[in-house]
Amino acid sequence: QVQLVESGGGLVQPGGSLRLSCAASGSSFSAYDMGWYRQAPGKQRELVAKITRGYLVNYADSVRGRFAISKDNAKNTVYLQMNSLKPKSSTDYYCSRLNAPMIWGQGTQVTVFS
C-alpha cells in the first residue's frame, strides 16, 4: 500500500514562500500522476496543482504564476513551491496520488499571517 507523507507547512508572513514536500513509499512513483489539494474549513477540497507522470503541469487559476509543482522520481517526492503567499492561502494542504485508487497524505498546515 502506497503511503504519502507531507511536510514543509508552517507559519509565514504575507508575500513569503514555503515549499511543501510529499514523500511516497513504494517503487512505482514515476508512473503516478500527483496532485496538491487544499481544503479550507467548511469548503470542498480544491485541486491546487497537478503533475502527470510525463511532467505536464496544471494549476488552479487562483495560484497560477505563484505556485509551482515539481517532482523528483529518484526521491519519490513531489513538491509544491508556494510564493507570494496571501492570508487566504492559509489552510491544510494535501498531497494525492491521482491515479485510481486515489491516495491521500495526512496533510500539512500552512498559515499566512501579518
Tell me about this structure.
The protein has 114 residues and is mostly beta strands. It has strands at residues 4-7, 10-12, 18-24, 34-39, 46-51, 57-59, 67-72, 77-82, 91-97, 103-104, 108-112. Strands 2, 4, 5, 6, 9, 10 and 11 form a 7-stranded mixed β-sheet that branches. The protein is globular, with a radius of gyration of 13 Å. The termini are far apart.
Features of this protein?
11 strands, 7-stranded mixed β-sheet, 114 residues, mainly beta, 4-stranded antiparallel β-sheet
Helix content: under 10%
Mind telling me the C-alpha Rg?
13 Å
Helix and strand pattern: EEEEEEEEEEE
Distance from first to last alpha carbon: 41 Å
Low-confidence stretches: none
Question: What value does the average pLDDT take?
Answer: 96
The biggest sheet amounts to: 7 strands, mixed
Q: Which structural class should the secondary elements be placed in?
A: mainly beta
Number of helices: 0
Q: Tell me the fraction of residues in β-strands, as a range.
A: over 45%
Name the shape in a single word: globular
**Structure summary, number of beta strands:** 11
Topology:
Layout: E1 4-7, E2 10-12, E3 18-24, E4 34-39, E5 46-51, E6 57-59, E7 67-72, E8 77-82, E9 91-97, E10 103-104, E11 108-112
Parallel strand pairs: 2-11
Antiparallel strand pairs: 1-3, 3-8, 4-5, 4-9, 5-6, 7-8, 9-10, 9-11
Task: Sum this structure up briefly.
By secondary structure, the chain is mostly beta strands. Helices cover 0% and strands 48% of the residues.
